[in-house]
Amino acid sequence: MSNQVRRELVAAVTATARRHHAAYTLFNQAMAEHLGLHPTDLQCVSLLALEPGPRTTGEIAQLTGLTSGSATRLVDRLQKAGLAERHLDAHDRRKMLVSLTTGRTPEIEAAWDTPGKAFDQALDDFTDDELTVIERYLRRTTDVGTEQTARLRTR
Q1: Choosing a second label site near 17 at 20 to 30 A (CA), which of 101, 109, 131, 145?
Q2: At CA 40, angle to CA 96 and CA 81, rounded to 5?
Q3: Do residues 97 and 86 lie in contact, with contact meaning Cβ atoms separated by under 8 Å?
Q4: Contacts of 104 (CB under 8 A, 6+ apart)
Q5: Is the dihedral of CA 154, 65, 118, 34 positive or negative?
Q6: Residue among 30, 60, 33 at smallest CA distance from 46
Q7: What whole-number distance in Å separates Cα of residue 149 and Cα of residue 12?
Q8: What is the DSSP string of 52-112?
Q9: How far apart are CA 39 and CA 130, in angstroms?
């Protein structure tokens, strides 16, 4: 493959990734509005659902890239919305842990039903090898995005 062809392919992937990010950001905003949430709150719920257990507010700040004060306000909003609860850490009673509640789970699952099926169907015609490459690309660009967010915030 020539250098020119590679540059064009990389440019096409980069442009498509930017469109993907914009489309997903707008989708996240629409879904959050549909559920009566702030888009950051919905992303936090999504991230917490991927975690193996409850997290401290400081860990939530790290997950979301927010300051500790902003993360505290975010958890306050999630608690008020019936999506999260705080409880004492059984191993360190000085710490408060935040976990998702199940009270609004049926509502959130219902809201995700149609979009979730559509996103799954978008992957139907990819081979297992192609899905492996897509997952690797997404993992790498997620890591780069996390690193670049930290870099921009430390300036």
Answers
A1: 109
A2: 60
A3: yes
A4: 81, 82, 83
A5: negative
A6: 60
A7: 23
A8: SS-EEHHHHHHHHT--HHHHHHHHHHHHHTTSEEEEE-SS-TT-EEEEE-STTHHHHHHHH
A9: 30
Separation between Cα atoms, residue 78 and residue 47, nearest integer Å: 13
Closest by Cα among 46, 73, 45, 71 to 59: 71
And the tokens for 14?
Answer: 């980069």
Q: 0.70 exceeded by the pTM?
A: yes
